[in-house]
């Protein structure tokens, strides 16, 4: 099979049927499959996906027990693909399905492991654009991502990279972070980006903070090394500042009042302790959750025509 298409489904009861129908039309010349992963959607998406999977033999449907998050749903979908290439596309039609062929052509022409989409003008809400910019800036430093590469959710991944990604067993998958742990052979191509026609984005401030912390803490040693350098620099500054005070006091240049020294030392130490305890707590929390046996997803139901054969 040449191509697999993974679609994380959440609150898309009105769009998922037309999206699958359009994929069937534009990919008809290729051997392909579609993997729908319902991420605990509270609307009627599950029933719609079940009907779609029953209608098409090349569509398999997986329903998760609850809402685990987009990356977890994508990881689940990747684990059930069979294609030489796997495309990941959202369920809201902002990425035209026909653009998958552009990603595929680019991957084959450039022999790239991963091809990301990029947009001349993004049609997201300004808040989501801001969040994407912040996360992309962070990943440039924490993952070693090229500065000019935009980490979009619409992308194409080669089979051997998918096989490495799905080895992840923790509860906090970040697909782009896992990609850059496997390969640096990535490319990008310009594709259209359409305005949202139905519903609203599920991108919230809480999800942005969670993603930011996940990337910041879970996929690089850069944060702890940065705070180590900061702590060393602060200690050196305090040492020199204290030495200057001591010399000035011994030379009679000025009077150092005890309450000022105590207040400065207490405030500095308290702020530093809180800072490092917070970072240490994040690391310990991630380690605890990762080794506690919590899975990245739990399948409630899986349906595929191939399973009936």
UniProtKB/TrEMBL annotation:
Entry keyword set: Cell membrane, Glycosyltransferase, Lipopolysaccharide biosynthesis, Membrane, Transferase, Transmembrane, Transmembrane helix
Single GO term (MF): undecaprenyl-phosphate 4-deoxy-4-formamido-L-arabinose transferase activity
Keyword Repressor set for record: no
Domain of life where this protein originates: Bacteria
GO cellular component terms listed in the entry, alphabetical order: plasma membrane
Listed InterPro entries: Glyco_trans_2-like, Glycosyltransferase_2, Nucleotide-diphossugar_trans
Entry's transmembrane regions: 208-224, 230-251, 258-277
Domain (Glycosyltransferase 2-like): residue spans on this chain: 4-165
Any one GO biological process: lipopolysaccharide biosynthetic process
PANTHER family (alphabetical): UNDECAPRENYL-PHOSPHATE 4-DEOXY-4-FORMAMIDO-L-ARABINOSE TRANSFERASE (PTHR48090:SF3), UNDECAPRENYL-PHOSPHATE 4-DEOXY-4-FORMAMIDO-L-ARABINOSE TRANSFERASE-RELATED (PTHR48090)
Protein name: Glycosyl transferase family 2
Native organism: Spirosoma montaniterrae
């Amino acid at each position: 099979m040449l191509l697999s298409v993974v679609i994380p489904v959440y609150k898309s009861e009105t769009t998922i049927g037309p999206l699958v129908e359009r994929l069937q039309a534009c990919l008809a010349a290729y051997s392909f499959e579609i993997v729908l992963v319902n991420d605990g959607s509270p609307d009627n998406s599950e029933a719609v996906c079940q009907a779609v999977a029953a209608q098409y033999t090349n569509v398999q449907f997986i329903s998760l027990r609850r809402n685990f998050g987009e990356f977890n749903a994508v990881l689940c979908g990747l684990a059930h693909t069979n294609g030489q290439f796997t495309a990941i596309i959202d369920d809201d039609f902002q990425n035209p399905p026909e653009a998958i062929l552009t990603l595929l052509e680019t991957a084959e022409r450039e022999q790239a492991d991963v091809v990301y989409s990029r947009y001349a003008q993004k049609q997201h809400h300004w808040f989501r654009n801001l969040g994407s910019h912040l996360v992309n800036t962070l990943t440039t430093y924490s993952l070693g991502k090229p500065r000019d590469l935009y980490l979009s959710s619409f992308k194409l991944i080669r089979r051997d990279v998918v096989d490495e990604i799905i080895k992840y067993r923790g509860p906090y998958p970040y697909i782009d972070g896992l990609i850059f742990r496997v390969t640096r052979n990535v490319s990008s191509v310009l594709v259209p980006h359409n305005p949202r026609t139905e519903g609203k984005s599920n991108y919230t401030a809480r999800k942005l903070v969670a993603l930011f912390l996940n990337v910041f803490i879970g996929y690089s040693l850069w944060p702890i090394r940065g705070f180590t350098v900061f702590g060393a620099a602060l200690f050196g500054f305090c040492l020199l500042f204290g030495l200057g005070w001591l010399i000035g006091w011994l030379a009679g240049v000025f009077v150092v009042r005890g309450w000022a020294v105590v207040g400065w030392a207490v405030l500095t130490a308290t702020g530093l302790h809180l800072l490092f305890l917070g970072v240490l707590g994040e690391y310990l929390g991630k380690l605890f959750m990762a080794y506690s046996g919590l899975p990245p997803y739990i399948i409630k139901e899986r349906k595929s025509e191939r399973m009936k054969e």
